[in-house]
Amino acid sequence: MQHFVAPSSIVRRIWGSADTILFIFAGAAAEFALNKAVDWLYFTGRLPSDPLGRLFSTVDYARRIVFADQAAAEQAIDTIAAIHGAVEAKRGHAIPDWAYRDVLFMLIAYSMRAFEVLERPLTAAEREEIVEVFGRVGRRMGISELPTGYAAWRLAREQHLAQNTLLSSYTEDLYRQYERHLGWARFQLLRGVQGMVVPPSVRGWLGLPDGAWLRPPLALYRATRSFALSQWAKNAMLPAEYRDRIKDLDAQPAEVTPPPSRGSCPFHRAGAPTGLRRRAA
């Protein structure tokens, strides 16, 4: 059986852990709130009503791609693409090309940053592999002008951050929704995690703390995560009703649940990466 992502890949290690997944989406939720195309998140109206549910829907699809065989992964990507084409048709215009690349760049950037905050520095080969894997996802969806290596991606990423971020009324509303659904204490924890993983420019736009106060508990977590006690850290990040879903993020690939239906495509509904779709030929 041909896998879309090799079983030994660093990408599988990153996306097979609840720890790194939660940090990835914390960072992406911050950055996309500043994206100039964030209005697309509001078109369906589902993000403000259920940002946490949309997060888990996004995770389900991303893991389906990472852990699937080649054919199943491509089918999942094509489904996402088709749904986004329908959303664009309903709104009457297309999401900008640069917005699609921004989303893919976020997946790459926060996969790297979350792993390095929680685990260790990535090797040069691992960085190249992460860019290559998500590049294949993007090319399958028809996203144009994608960089083909880490150095080119890093340059393009800096250009996109400089050109495509803006503090807006959508930014403010998204953060109000995050706080409303998380509660004040968890919202402060979210902001701390975001401050640890986002680029300095994003931290400055949003007025995020640098997350220094989280380093001692994070060190404790690293020391205890091989024990059941480590679950406390993951549970602390989201309300109690999501605890079972958090545990599921640590499931082995064979345990991953079936993909969501066509109507639950995450990328235009979630509070994190959104907006990918396949270009018409």
From TrEMBL:
Superkingdom of the organism of origin? Bacteria
**Residues in ER-bound oxygenase mpaB/mpaB'/Rubber oxygenase catalytic domain copies:** 43-226
- Write out the ranges of the annotated region (Disordered): 252-281
Q: Which InterPro entries has this protein been placed in?
A: MPAB/Lcp_cat_dom (IPR018713)
- Tell me, what's a Pfam family for it? MPAB_Lcp_cat
Q: What is this protein called?
A: DUF2236 domain-containing protein
The organism that produces this protein has a lineage beginning with: Bacteria, Pseudomonadati, Bacteroidota, Cytophagia, Cytophagales
